[in-house]
What we know:
The chain is mainly beta.
Amino acid sequence: MDIIKTDIEGVVILRPRIFTDARGYFFESFSQREFNEKVQPVDFVQDNESCSSYGVMRGLHFQRPPFTQAKLVRCVKGAVLDVAVDLRKGSPTYGRHVAVELSEDNHLQLFIPRGFAHGFAVLSDIAVFQYKCDNYYAPQADGGISIVDSSLGIDWRIDPSEAILSEKDSGHPLLADFESPFEI
Length: 184
């Protein structure tokens, strides 16, 4: 796998080596050894999957300490715009984001370290989204910031007024009204 650095330290894009022939393609979607060597040592303990239709926006989610999570995300069907927002107090990139299109065609993955909010917008008719977490989900530690907060400067490529949001995601605070639980 190739590692592509982003403008935010620790957030990286992973591009697999894809082997194609007349039968189709093959690639190694994850290797713990290679990930630990090239990105950072992480022990993933839970895999999740969601299926969503065009216009669905999920996020921007995180887990509060001590249940924080790092995530390795990918889109196995369709396409999404995937976003990580730095919420680490004292970080020179606090409040900034990385956005990358993940799709079944490009096979890219995004690694999001602990201390970031994460969300995505579905750009295709249907998207199947998978992610690995390095900590188990703890409902009491659920948190989020508004996915439609214009101060974040995210171009979701979907009109936020037409986005399909859950009731929970519609109620998250703006970044300006948020007290981050994350330290560098």
